[in-house]
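Entry type: protein chain
Record version: 2
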Amino acid sequence: MLPILLALTMALPQDTILPRWHPLARYLDSSLARRAFPGAVVAVGRRDSLLFLLAVGRLDYRDGAPVTPRTVYDLASLTKVVGLTTAAMMLVTESPPAANAGT
């Protein structure tokens, strides 16, 4: 999956944003202006198509390098929470109701 995403990032010019994605781009810009984060990369895809790609800001608040579509962020601390929450919710939605629930 990663090689496909990297190939797609090179295929879509960053300054080409379809009108349907303008609200997301504006939100990122306004969040950056409010200093919610120093920089971000957002990629939205569906199956094998890249629908939206935008890199904004810098790597840190001081004089960090500009963020690019190829910037990689360390999400190690988030993977536990996101993975566990997703797995738990999948189990909840797939589990049949307990036979004696509420008795």
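Comment: The two ends are 47 Å apart (CA to CA).
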